Model the fold of this input.
Amino acid sequence: MRLEARGAVSPAMAVVAPLAAVAFTLVVAALFVAWAGAPVGRTYALIFEGGFGSRFAWSETLTRATPLVLTGLAAAIAFRARLYNIGAEGQLYAGALAAVAVGGLHGGTGFELPPAVLFPAMLAAAALAGAVLMALPAIAKTRFGVDEVVTTLLLNFIVLLVVSMMLDGPMKDPTAMGWPQSVALQDELQLSKLVERTRVHTGLLIALALAGLAWGVLRLTTFGFEVRAVGANARAARFAGVPVTRTILAVALASGAVAGLAGAIEVAGRTGYVTLDMSPGYGYTGIVIAMLAGLNPLGVVAAAVFVAGVLVGADSMSRAVAVPTYVADLIVAVALLSMLVATVAARYRLRLR
Amino acid sequence: MVDALAAMLANADFWSAVLRVATPLVLGTLGVLLCERAGVLNLGIEGIMVAGAFTGWLAVHAGASLWTGVLVAAATGAAFGLLHGVLTVSLALSQHVAGLGITMFASSVAYYAYRVSFPNVSTPPTIQPFVEMRWLELPVLSAQTPLTLLALALVPVVAWVLNRTPLGLAVRMVGENPAAAEGQGLSVSAVRMGAIVAGSALMGVAGAFLTLSAFNAFFFNMVNGRGWICVALVVFASWRPGKALAGALLFAFFDAMQLRLQQADVGGLPYQAWLMLPYVLSIVALIAVARRASYPQALMKPYRKGER
Done:
């Protein structure tokens, strides 16, 4: 069995392969749903309805998609340069913590600065926290050759423990009756609602703007070209005069900063304070989203909405039929694997001998 | 502080705990080591451990013997390993991304299956786990279960196979120079596939240790990053089984120590600071050994016959 490169990806194949991947995912998930003893058609209908079927469903899906666009971007930017940042989860929490440190009500009042100053300072602090957290693995990679996958993964565990420590100690909300949550963010710093009587907030616009910016930078600037060159072939890029180390470091800082912003925007747009369960794995889901999007920043938006819809839809579905919500993770994981296979199928022909 | 440390080190219970904590790490690290010596990174370990922990426990819960449970866990690991092999060897996909995909897939299948099998349980159902080998009458070992003995025995076995047998030579060759191996008439994909399947089976058993020996039930998040630690330990061990055992024991030593110091409330530090210690030390160790690390030369490089 071997792979044979096709001359060029035919337009038909470029359309058929991803569709086949989606169809395959639906079939696999259907088997699992049937195993749980639930009617497959009704389960799918309920997931779709819960995720995309109404104004309320859309509002919940977009709310969930907001942090996912950002963590998806964080992964897509880094993976473009073949920097495998698996630490977006930790960077998100670091950003959330930094946001509350700057904009929180410490001892009742917080910093006595006008919101026009404090709001950008809060976002900057969150971005900085995420970037600093990503700087260590990036330096370890470029200076010492330490694989960044393991270091970024391990940092996730460390950051969560730091968050837990802060919520028990200096940043604990004394009015939360022992519940581990941080002090609240000042009211003036909360993001306003985008649609009345829903949870969609203006953080979505920030996420979309960043996706557009990332697309523009990667596509239209010299720096973006260098990033893609490093990702395609670092040795050839170095030979061609691309500052590889500096590019990797810059990509690392940008990726960490975007993930940090995701934390600040979740706090300012949805939760209002930091808790230990504010992210149900947004950082990890972001990696899937980036892969589903083929590392294209605009594709990340579409993929994030799709994944958010499945997650929200599965939540509401499991209240009606006896299918565990883990079916959402299953769908997302199978979608990732089959999409990977589809990309190969589009570019290579499988020859059995 | 010094007194507390001395008392801890003199206590046989402490060393028993070290060995207990080390067991799944030894099994998992050997598994990662086998895959990586053949040139394939396997980040599926975290999910494969979850799946092995679940299926092994489920088999025993359904009435099978404990050793059957271990075999079921190994078979589960092997099955996910086969999938990883198809993705990374046959289809030459990115090993990072495929591995993460396997982790997500394996753990979500396990959690889903657990919820489907036990929809309305408030406390996880328990089994009768492996018992300590009291008959052994050795100080620290007799407080362990047979799975720990298996893990310890596997270290020299894996080392011997890798370094002293034609099979091990083949595994090392495809990990160092696949084109040369092909030239010798070896099938690179078959050898790599075999190494991944065998290594993933060990990862499954590593997970099963948690449900069949360390605890007696399946919990969500019970693997809790142990798989990632194994990936770090392999680098720390420079891809050598003996050093992998040493690394796992060292990690377990710090993990058991932080638990004791945390309970003794030494130094008045918050408990999270102690919990952090093993992870921080892992990163420090990775950076410390990175300069002299001798990676298998073909690690993370997919091999396509006839392509350069």
